[in-house]
Amino acid sequence: MTATLASDVTSSNASLRRFLHGLPGVDQVGADARAAMLSTRSIKAASKSYAIDLAISMVDLTTLEGMDTPGKVRALCAKGLRPDPTDPGVPHVAAICVYGDMAAIAREAVGDRLHVAAVATAFPSGRSSLAVKLQDTRDAIANGADEIDMVIDRGAFLEGRYLEVFEEIVAVKDVCGSAAHLKVIFETGELKTYDNVRRACWLAMLAGADFIKTSTGKVAPAATMPVTLILLEAVRDWYRQTGHKVGVKPAGGIRTSKDAIRYLVMVNETCGPDWLTPDLFRFGASALLNDLLQQRQRMATGHYSGPDYVTID
């Protein structure tokens, strides 16, 4: 059914435009209000402990800086494998997320114990030729990445060149094949409207995205609860229509355990418990893990540890 739906609406830019602009509009006031309401939900202490461990297991522990070194990546991998060296009961993170040229370092460090996610396709701008983007993806996979985080061409999308964006995602997905899952980044802070965010969700899912992702973390605003709610509603509706589950990854600006738990509540309320797994929900973050570890320690001992309890990434 997924292939049939895609072929029905992507035969031309005009037909794809009709489909995307025919989607129900997003009630901005309603989306903001629902996200705000969900953020006020309280959970019991036992559920909070479970939620913190679940959130740790969903983190894509990330370093995406021009000054990244092999040593920094290896240290990040060690932390991802054993977030708290003093407590083997702490779950490992979902993935290490790095630039493609560092994927080999990460893969060597984690083996097959963690996913290695590599940003590709001229991240974060997406401003290069398709040939360069595809080679970027091939290089990352050859270096050991089993997840590719690609960015869409926001300029093409905002100009209404939807078929061009669709075909680019399809081409990157073809390169990924069975070797890597594909996460498609929208950079929602540049899409301007909630309606555009919903259209980008459906465009990416039609093209075969395994995950849809809010942001690169390089543009403000990055992940927000209302925008993530739109992504969650899109994958829920896609599943109801096609029977195919797509994951969601908010990235950028999620720094506290309280925020992470709010997102998990929203996932459960919108998509249901099936999405409460690292296979279908991730946090793109670096600082978040430290706060989750601090809160976990406080719940276990009744007090916060000293400032050297967690490493500074």
Helices and strands in order, then pairings?
Blueprint: H1 2-9, H2 13-21, H3 28-38, H4 45-57, E1 59-62, H5 70-81, E2 95-99, H6 103-110, E3 115-120, H7 130-142, E4 147-151, H8 154-158, H9 162-176, E5 181-185, H10 194-206, E6 211-213, H11 225-242, E7 247-249, H12 257-270, E8 283-285, H13 288-301
Parallel strand pairs: 1-2, 1-8, 2-3, 3-4, 4-5, 5-6, 6-7
Describe the structure.
Helices cover 49% and strands 11% of the residues. It has 313 residues and is α/β, with parallel strands linked by helices. The chain has a single domain, classed as TIM Barrel (Alpha-Beta Barrel). The chain has an eight-stranded parallel sheet. The N and C termini lie far apart (44 Å). The mean pLDDT is 94.
Give the CATH class. Answer: Alpha Beta
End-to-end Cα distance = 44 Å
Strand order of the largest sheet: 7-6-5-4-3-2-1-8
The CATH architecture assignment turns out to be Alpha-Beta Barrel
As a percent range, the share of strand residues is 5-15%
Q: Count up the domains.
A: 1
- Which of globular, elongated, flat, extended, rod-shaped describes the shape? globular
Broad structural category: alpha/beta
CATH homologous superfamily title = Aldolase class I
